[in-house]
Design a protein that fits this description.
This protein is of the alpha+beta class. Helices cover 50% and strands 18% of the residues. It is built from eleven helices and ten strands. Strands 1-2 form a two-stranded antiparallel ribbon. Strand 7 and strand 8 form a beta hairpin. Helix 2 packs across helix 3 and helix 3 crosses helix 4. The N and C termini lie far apart (54 Å). The relative contact order is 0.12. About 3% of the residues have low confidence.
Length: 226
């Protein structure tokens, strides 16, 4: 039989339900221990270690050491965007699990996706930045305009610091719940960090949900008109 394309190996790594659950848990952008990931996948610590070894060897995860503790995180934004795209495809094709209750409503409203803002609020942010001329598309790529740089600086984001990083400043990420784009890249992460710094929003405990305060909702609407 003819050998399949390189994507077959990656698809096999992601396709296992336990590994998919662990990858999904890491979409918050936080690094987690093997025990925490085992709990997320509802498997034993020993089984989780075997799965994590495969994901690390497959370059989907990286290990981080702090003292005696070992943590796991997504290897890079490319992995996060791939997982997010698969979540969207699963939802579009009716393969996603039923989600009910107020917790899910919070996730659909605003959540962390590899440390940038996703959900309805994330789509709102992206579309407002485009509408105001702060983001634009050129040759199939998303870029920050001069007006956008000035806006980000005035908002308290250090653009020079973002320029110095190897990762892209602006990227589109297909939102699995809204099925429209939200802002990824270092700028997307910087906006979410800034929202938290100025007290507009905070991360819900033990969840990817991002909760905006009443003041945060008002200020968000003022700064990012639809």
């Amino acid at each position: 039989m003819k050998e399949g394309p390189p994507i077959a190996h990656i698809a096999t790594l992601i396709g296992d339900p336990a590994r998919a659950n662990m990858l999904g848990a890491l979409m918050s952008g936080k690094a987690l221990t093997a025990t925490e990931l085992a709990n997320e996948a509802q498997i034993t610590r020993q089984t989780a270690s075997a799965h994590l070894k495969k994901l690390t060897e497959g370059q989907l995860l990286i290990q981080r050491h702090q003292g005696r503790h070992k943590y796991y995180a997504l290897a890079n934004e490319e992995v996060a965007l791939t997982i997010a795209g698969l979540m969207g495809l699963a939802d579009l094709t009716g393969q996603s699990r039923t989600r009910t209750g107020p917790k899910d409503e919070a996730l659909r409203t605003a959540r962390a996706c590899y440390n940038h803002l996703a959900g309805e609020k994330g789509v709102w942010l992206y579309e407002s930045l485009c509408k105001q001329g702060h983001l634009d598309h050129k040759d199939g790529a998303l870029y920050l305009t001069d007006n956008g740089r000035a806006f980000a600086l005035a908002f308290g984001i250090d653009i020079d610091e973002l320029d110095a990083k190897s990762s892209a400043i602006c990227r589109e990420c297909l939102d699995w719940s809204a099925r429209r784009s939200h802002l990824a890249g270092s700028l997307g992460r910087a906006f979410l960090t800034r929202f938290e710094e100025i007290g507009w929003a905070y991360r819900a405990p033990n969840s990817r949900a991002v909760i905006f305060t009443p003041r945060g909702n008002r200020e968000f609407a003022n700064h990012f008109p639809r």
